[in-house]
Amino acid sequence: MNNTTRVAIITGASQGIGAALVEGYRTLGYAVVANSRTIAASDDPMVLAVPGDIGEPGVGRRIIDAALEHFGRVDTVVNNAGIFIAKPFTAYTDADYDAITGVNLRGFFEVTRAAVAAMESHGGGNIISISTSLVDHANSQVPSALASLTKGGLNAATKALAIEYAGRGIRSNAVALGIIDTPMHPPETHEFLAALHPVGHLGAIDDVVDAVLYLENAGFVTGEILHVDGGQAAGH
Hints:
The protein has six helices and seven strands; from the N terminus they run E-H-E-E-H-E-H-E-H-E-H-H-E. The protein is of the alpha/beta class and 236 residues long. The chain has a single domain, classed as 3-Layer(aba) Sandwich (Rossmann fold). Belongs to the short-chain dehydrogenases/reductases (SDR) family.
């Protein structure tokens, strides 16, 4: 292929927000490397599916290597994959901790580390990570300390990378979400979940895609935690 075509890496890309992000980046003309634990090959020759659990050592590097081998470059990484388990703090198990930190932290670290090295080789790039407004706006109705532990770290790393790489053409931003209407939330939970947002309704997948693509194109924005949360971070 013509290796001037921009290339985006998207984790957690098999369904929901991730699948919509693949479509969004294709609409921008990007080639896409789509990762999930299990993901089917695409009929689109500009979408490369790379299955693998990013919580496992070495998988992040393998995703970036596949992108470089297939498309020749990496311009953007969207750290969309994440695990969210809401339960009282003392009810979390060691297995919960390993699963959540594996994907939310190790996955971010390994994919982003390899992606940044690839971005530096052609003078710039873009890191966008999906976070949660629960970091800023804890809610007793949704106890989720491990989400805050991991995604709060992600927010801090987002700013750190923005500053570290500002002079090298690499931007780093995050999108902090409220509750988005995806299949993971059964319809019978929607009324309760909608009430957690000042605007009184859930977010849509398109709201997330719009925010990510805004950050993709916002060349003067870096180190930003963009809240797409129906006003949660502002108060309630």
